Amino acid sequence: VQEEKIFAGKVLRLHVCTMEGAEWLEEVPEDTTVEKLKERCLKHCLPGSLEDPKTMTHHKLIHATSEKVLTDTKTMLEENIQDRDVLLLIKKRAPPPLPKMADVSAEEKRKQEQKAPDKDAILKATANLPSRNVDRTVAHHNMRDFQTELRKILVSLIEVAQKLLALNPDAVELFKKANAMLDEDEEDRVDEIALRQLTEMGFPESRAVKALRLNHMSVTQAMEWLIEHADDPAVDAPLPGQTPSEATAEAGAASAEATAGPSSEADGEEAKDELTEIFKKIRRKREFRPDPRAVIALMEMGFDEKEVVDALRVNNNQQNAACEWLLGDRKPSPEDLDKGIDTNSPLFQAILENPVVQLGLTNPKTLLAFEDMLENPLNSTQWMNDPETGPVMLQISRIFQTLNRT
């Protein structure tokens, strides 16, 4: 008995088929390579074909069940071929012939014909058409509509965020810290060094404070303003938009809220009432403050102070836009700014269904960002770059832009 027969592996009986319909049985040991089996198959179905060395490389064996192309160098065992499996002997597809030079030239010519016209061609083709003036106010109105819609979204999201945060057992403490943070960067604070420089020059403190606020804390500009208005009878009048009585009332309200305690209510009601008061305090600190210089400039044109403040509020403290609003149809109105978006609208539903927005609404910092952007739109960039609030604002912007195109 030959040694190789004693130690031979398991013999597999394999059904081999061709695309032409031929079928036969091949018996091979499991250690037979795919290449060897393919050679036996070609001898069976294509006698004499092996004289061409390319015949082997132009055919492949495929496992019928798994549709896997078998690797020539692997054995039946390595390819996990089982007894009575069906294999397909298939001739590989010939690669497509390379295009002729004439065909390439024709294809390039076709692409050139389909190419969009350049600027010179467009001008030549439209030379005889009458010219039309583009209404540039359309873009301005579209931008205003975007700002108005975004404001409505923020108003509604603030309401949702307040309701969600009221359910947080730590909400009161979180908002106390947030309220303290707001106290640290109050816009009403005056640069003490700049104020001392002006008072040392002999200017009254109240007048120096007014000059610094009007001139964005610039000592040089404030000094020029004080010299220019030294003989002005209204130089000591309070800034438009805030009177001494309002300032006193605001301070008194803040003091009352700080000292008042909900000790007479139950624990749950106490926390709820305290949170409500904190919300009110934050909103009061975020109340709109008109640019004093813009107010004075617009009032000098003959507009009433209340109208000027309304115009600046609608137009985000932009003096030129506020002037156009005063001279135009005055839309949107100041009342429209406090209205939220329709909660049943597809836009608002899409925003609320976004998981990033849902998670962000449970973060007190997001509510503060909404409050700040509501009354100070110029601070939007700051919140867009914030790692906590930026992703939320990005999702809101993307959803708005996507639905606005449809």
From TrEMBL:
Q: What InterPro entries does the record point to?
A: STI1_HS-bd, UBA, UBA-like_sf, UBA1_UBAC1, UBA2_UBAC1, UBAC1, Ubiquitin-like_dom, Ubiquitin-like_domsf
What cellular-component terms does GO give this entry?
cytoplasm; ubiquitin ligase complex
Q: Where is the Ubiquitin-like domain?
A: 12-96
Q: What is its main location?
A: cytoplasm
One of its Pfam families is: UBA_7
Residue ranges of the region described as Disordered:
98-119, 233-272
Q: Which domain of life is it from?
A: Eukaryota
- What is one Gene Ontology biological process annotated in the Swiss-Prot or TrEMBL record? protein ubiquitination
Which stretches are tagged as biased composition: Basic and acidic residues?
106-119
Outline the extent of the UBA domain.
183-229, 289-329
Which pathway does it serve? Protein modification; protein ubiquitination
Locations listed in the record? Cytoplasm
- Alphabetically ordered keywords of this record: Cytoplasm, Repeat, Ubl conjugation pathway
Q: Does the keyword Repeat apply?
A: yes
| Record keyword Methyltransferase present | no
Mark out the compositionally biased spans (Low complexity). Answer: 244-265
PANTHER family from the entry?
A: UBIQUITIN-ASSOCIATED DOMAIN-CONTAINING PROTEIN 1
Tell me what this protein is called: Ubiquitin-associated domain-containing protein 1
Species of origin: Geococcyx californianus
Please name the taxonomic classification of the source.
Eukaryota, Metazoa, Chordata, Craniata, Vertebrata
